[in-house]
Amino acid sequence: MSEVTTDPAVSLYFTVSIEGHDLGTFTGCDGLGCEVVVEQREEGGNNGFVHQLPGRIKYTNVKLTRAVNSDTAKIASWFRSLSDGVRRTTAQITALRSNGSEAWSWKLQGVVPVRWQGPSLSAESAKVATETLELAHHGFLEVAP
To answer: Where are the alpha helices (DSSP H) in 3-145?
Structure first.
């Protein structure tokens, strides 16, 4: 008898939508995270420890990757819509299981594109052509369950 896994982290892919622009599906999502910047202060005469003072929260850039496919045109269309100027917006990244059901969703605020990297093309290599989209953001918004 085979055992069915309920692990939501198995075989995920990601859909991305930015301010109403569907950018399609991605197979990799890296950098969803944040850290608290800690300032260290040494106190004269106290050799037992260094004060660790919490500062601001710093959000890491999100890097989305996939093989070049028909969804690549969606990124080009989105960048064309930014020709009048880049402004901060919201984005939603949804992790989907292999059967299409939603595992989790993250909504980001203050999103701006940092970089789009297209494939490196070479007739000498049989590698899959991939693209990467990098986004900066100012934090997470609450997503309703």
So the answer is: 72-81
